[in-house]
Structure formats: C-alpha cells, structure tokens
Amino acid sequence: MGLLFLACLLAVFPVVSMKSPIFGPQEVSRVEGSSVSITCYYPDSSVNRHTRKYWCRQGAQGRCTTLISSEGYISKDYEGRANLTNFPESNTFVVNIDHLTQGDAGRYKCGLGINSRGLSFDVSLEVLQGPGLHNGVDVYIADLGETATINCPFKPENSEKRKSVCKKTDQLCVLVVDSYGNVDSNYKDRAEIDIPDTSQLRFSFIMKGVRLSDAGMYVCQTGDGPSSEKSNAYLQVLKPEPELLYGDLRGSVTFDCAPGSKVPDTARFLCQKRNGEDCDVVINTLGQKAQAFEGRILLIPKEEGSFSVHITNLRKEDAGYYQCGTNSDGQPHKGYPTQPWQLFVNEETVMPQIPSVVKGVVGGSVAVLCPYNPKEADSLKYWCRWEDTQNGRCQPLVESEGLVKEQYKGRLTLHEEPGNGTYTVILNQLTPEDAGFYWCLTNGDNRWRYMVELKIVEGEPGLKANKNAVARVGENFKLPCHFPCKYYSFEKYWCKWNQRGCKTLPSQDEGPSQAFVNCDQKSQIISMTLNPVSKADEGWYWCGVKDGPRYGETMAVYLSVEERVKGSQDISQVASASGEEVVESSVREVESKVIQNPRFFVDDKTVKDVGDPADGSKGSADASSSAGQSGSSTVLVSTLVPLGLVLAVGAVVVAVLRARHRKNVDRVSIRSYRTDISMSDFENSKDFGANDNMGASPVTQETTLGEKDAPHTECGTATKNTAETEEPKKAKRSSKEEADMAYTAFLLQTNNMAAKVQEGPEKV
C-alpha cells in the first residue's frame, strides 16, 4: 500500500512541478530576412531579477543548447545579430534576433537559472519565405484579416478572353471567381477580379478579410481550353501574434486595445476565446458584461477607437486568449479586424491573500484591508465604488490626501499603514444601499488593484452608543460607548473624525488632556470626556476596537455643541436656590427685628395689671364680678398672646434651619439625576450646644460643596476610576456649625422674650 501511494505521488509530482511561472509567446512567425523580438516574463522577486537568463535551442533527447545568456555568452551562430536584455523593473527579459534565415526555424526555450534545472518556457519559431518569385512561383504574404492582392499576367492576344482564379486542392483546382461574375460561396463578398486596363496586360485578384484557410496555391487563368494562359501564385497568411499579459493570481491586468477601427463611434468589445473560433463577449460599450466578471471589470473608451479594459482579482480560469475590437453590435465577427491577446495568470503569486467579501449589518461598520505595492508606500491611495453602468465605472469616495465624498462625511476614513503593503478603509453607519462592489486603487502599479464585495446581512451592531449627543460650551461632557464581551481583550479607543482620518484621543492613563478616554472593563463601557466643552469640539466621534494592528468595529456619534445661556443651571438647582433665598430673606428680617426689640410683637397696652398666679397678695380685686371677669380675661390674653408669638417665631426659626439645612446638604449629580445625602442625626439635645461641632458623628464624612456650576462626579467621594477632573471649590462653614449657631441664637431670643413677658405681670 505504501509503495502504491509513493508511486502515485511520484506520478503526480512531475505534473505539478512542470507548472512554470515563466511566460512568453508560444508561436512566433516571421518572414525570412526580417527580425524578431521575443519577450519572456518571470515572477517578481529579488532572486529572479538577479539570476541568470538564457535562450537555448531544443535538440534531440530534450537537450537545450544555450545560444545567448545574460552573463554575456553568445554562440557563433548569433554573433553580431542577437542580444538578450534584462528589464528587472518590469520583470521581463527580451531576446532580439536579426536577419532571420530558414535555418533559424525551430523550437526554443527562454528561462532562468541553469538550462537543465531552471524555470523555462517553450517557444516555436517559424521562418517563412519572403515575397517574390521562388522556383517559378510568385509568393505573396498577407496578415490575417487584412486584404491580399495577387497580380495575374496575360498576353495581348488573350486580353479580351475570360479571366478566372482557382485554388488548388489536391489534384483539383476549385473556381474562386471569374470575370463573368461567378464566385464560390466561401468567397462571396470577399473575392473579385479587377481589370484596370487591358494595355497593362494583367488583372488583379483581390481578396478581403483574409483567413488562415485562404493560404495556399492559386492559379490565374486567361481564356479557356488548351490555349488558355496560366500562372501560379502562393499566398502565405501570417497569424497576428497576440499581445502578452502577465498577471498574478488575485492581481490586476489592463488590456490597452487599439484595433485601428476606421469608425471611432462603433461599439467596442473584449471577448474571450473559449473553444475553437468562438469568442464570448466579456464586456462591451453597449452594457453587456459576462457574469463571471461582475464587479471586477471596467471599460474606458479613448480617442480614435482605442480603449482600455481593467480586470481585477484574477482567477486561474481567466487565463487564455482574448480579442478586442469594434463593431456596430458590440460582437466579434469573422473578417473584421481584431487585436489578439494572451493572458497568463501566475499562480505563484506575490499578492497577499485578503478577503474579497466582507459582511456588515445595518447601523454597523466594516473594515476593508486593501493591498498596494510595498515599494510605493508614498503613492496616493483611493477607494471607489464600482457602478454597473454601460462600461462600468468607479468614482473615488475617499483618498489618502483627505478627499471624502460629501455624502460619506463622518462615515468613511482611510488609514495608511506605511511599510506593510496594506491600508485600511472603514465605512460605518451602514445601510442596505451600501451593498455592492468596491475597488482599492493607487496612482502607482496597476497590478495591485483589488476588488471587495460588501454584503449587508441581518444582525445588530456590537458597539452601542447614542447616534447624536448635545453638549454646552464650558461644561464637562461624558460620552459612553458599550462594547460586548467578545471585545473584552481588544484595544478600545475614541477618535475624532476629519477628512484626513480619525485622530485617536488619548486615554486617561496618558496624562491630563482637554479630551480623554476612560475604559471600565467591568461595566463594559469606554467613555470619552470633554473637560470643558468648546465650540471646536463639535463634530463626529468614533468609538472603536482594534485587534493589534487590525481595525475592527466602529460606531459613529455626532456631537452638537450649543452656547450656554447666561444664568442657566440645572432646573432643580435653580428652583431650590430661589426658594431658599426667599425664605432666608424673610427669616433674616424677623431675626433682626427680634434682636433689636424683643417685644416687637407684644402690645404694651394689652399688658395690664396681671398678678402672679402663685401669689394672690399682689393682686387688687375689683368689687364687682364683671370687673373681676374683665381682669381675668385681660391677664389670660396678656399671657397667651406672647406665648403664641414665641411659638410662631420658633416655627419660623425651624423653617430657617430646614432651609439652610437643604441648602448646605451634600449633593451628588449624575447628568439630570440628583441624590441628597443628609447629615447624621444628632444623638441628644446637648449636641446642639456651641461646642465646636462636638456632637457630629465620628463616622460622618463631609464633602466640600462646590459652586452651582461645578462639574458633577459619579459618586459623592472621589474614586480612582472617575473620568472627570474636580475644580477648586470655595470652602464653606459646615451645615452642623450653622445649625448650632442658629439654634443658640434662637435660645437666647426666646429667653429674652420670656423674661420680658414675665416682667409685665409682675409690674401689673
């Protein structure tokens, strides 16, 4: 079993190894005495550019004798008429041979390295007889598809007789055309006889749209029967040598077609020969495109009937023969001039293997990796969208020098990565209309053009953030972005978009900055903070992730910046402050009047002679009962009114204390949400003495309150993960101290008022 496997492996291996990346013309035809130039292509590598190149002639038993090499060797047969030139910038070398002879016809190889072991390509060279008389036969040469003219002489006595031309086929001579109007069906509308003037003693046989089958021996005849006059002519048809194109798998090629059409307005086409004589249209200017080339082909018309066809993302099946030409219906026709091409696809490609299909979801993003020639790091990079028009077109959407198409602003950016041969294009805020084909281009080597197909599939974006946000000038602003668990180990970032890219903002660990980024892995939120906000901060911001050098998903947010209205604050703060000011103003007025005149609310006229209830000897009773009742009522009123006033003043003072307590309470504000943190309750009444706040609970932790416009923090006490910078705050007297002072003032005032009230009855 093992031997069988080894035998199969050895049988397969030579077949695989015979696939050579060297490419050149398979068949070359030239006329004797002329010259030939043969171009051989090799893969792009430093080794191939500097290794030995050679041209050798194949002999018996597979031996190939070197005739000329890049090391300076030239055989005696080639001395003075041949040379080999290497062109490393285009990865080609050219063999030129002059003064061709019949002896130069044969089979050759062009290759790299050593003849017997190097890479090579087989070339067949055919040397045809030149035009003229050879052994009594006139030799004519015509190019395929062109017009051939054969001159037939005759004697004067035959000038009025019938003229005809036939073609020899084995032992027969089949009539082609005669002067009576008879034409063979194979030559209809192509062959004719022209008799310009009988005095010239010759007529011309003209054949248009020469085909390969038209080559052979023709017999010109004047008259009929045994007395007829005959002459022989031999026609050679030269096949046009195809233009050679060398492309790398996944690379790009350009057909520069110049068929020489006499009608520049005729429809242009490029077709691929599949089998025999058939040539299937790949693309034409009438809008026809082959399905296999959808999204990766462009046709660009030029002047005088010429045009270019670009094909990207080359596949193995793209190799083969092509023809480009012009015709009214955009289709190839026999007999019409075309320009042949042969495309070779090198499977030992240097093109990086990059996904040609990317998928995204509505509202999400895609990051497209584009290749370029690493030797052209300074080249201008583009990204365009392929449009299915008549010829196909691709208009740039973004370029590396800062151009971004208007409808893609805030959505599209191009990241250059010098040195590694790739750049990245990121498109976010995806819509179903974004699905289609896109091309990566540079203004340098066209072989590195690349196409990618964008597909929109079902799903939701991984990153979550508000698409629009509003901030006010001078305030602090935080913009959060939530990422899923699958991005936990990825690098997270925020960047600010502009036409030249998206500049990454510094993280909080990189030091203080007006704008910085903080990432909380536990809450899976990456936040951007502006401290403070300025008008220049308005614009697009992107939240994104990276996996090493590779860009991942992004989410775009547009930040609007508004001017802050003078005096505008948090609604709850404004209402609370205005209410507290009114209450405080009224209480201060009452306190002032009480201190200046403790009996302000007691009418001296209502305080009559009131006896001490415990000592009846000091009273003077009236004789009548009515007088006694009147005196008792007077004393009751005089006693209750001051007490009521004292209670009223106490209620006002309590209101003052509560108002001041609310004003000085510690507050936490998170965006529009506010939580009040009150002081610890006092344990007993003695805590209200003026003893330097000794009654405060030892575990109570106070927070210095800032001014009304101070930035809010995430918690009441400072934390290590806070993303905001606290501003210096004006120190104030603590709420406990103010409560002690107010309560002391209240006790003093009530004692004074009680003493005055008691003095009144005593005097009475």
UniProtKB/TrEMBL annotation:
Residues annotated as domain Ig-like: 14-120, 461-560
Cross-referenced SMART domains: IG, IGv
Record-level Gene Ontology MF annotations: transmembrane signaling receptor activity
Keywords assigned by UniProt, alphabetized: Cell membrane, Disulfide bond, Glycoprotein, Immunoglobulin domain, Membrane, Secreted, Signal, Transmembrane, Transmembrane helix
Transmembrane stretches, start-end: 635-657
Parts forming coiled coils: none
Bias (Basic and acidic residues) ranges: 726-738
Low complexity bias locations: 613-631
Region annotation Disordered: where it falls in the sequence: 606-631, 701-738
PROSITE patterns reported for this sequence: IG_LIKE
Annotated compartments: Cell membrane; Secreted
Membrane topology summary: Single-pass type I membrane protein
Pfam families in alphabetical order: V-set
Signal peptide positions on this chain: 1-18
GO CC term, one of those recorded: extracellular region
Quaternary structure and partners: Interacts (mainly via CDR1-like domain) with dimeric IgA. Interacts (mainly via CDR2-like domain) with pentameric IgM.
Chain's role: Through its N-linked glycans ensures anchoring of secretory IgA (sIgA) molecules to mucus lining the epithelial surface to neutralize extracellular pathogens. On its own (free form) may act as a non-specific microbial scavenger to prevent pathogen interaction with epithelial cells. Mediates selective transcytosis of polymeric IgA and IgM across mucosal epithelial cells. Binds polymeric IgA and IgM at the basolateral surface of epithelial cells. The complex is then transported across the cell to be secreted at the apical surface. During this process, a cleavage occurs that separates the extracellular (known as the secretory component) from the transmembrane segment.
Record's protein name: Polymeric immunoglobulin receptor
Source organism per UniProt: Gulo gulo
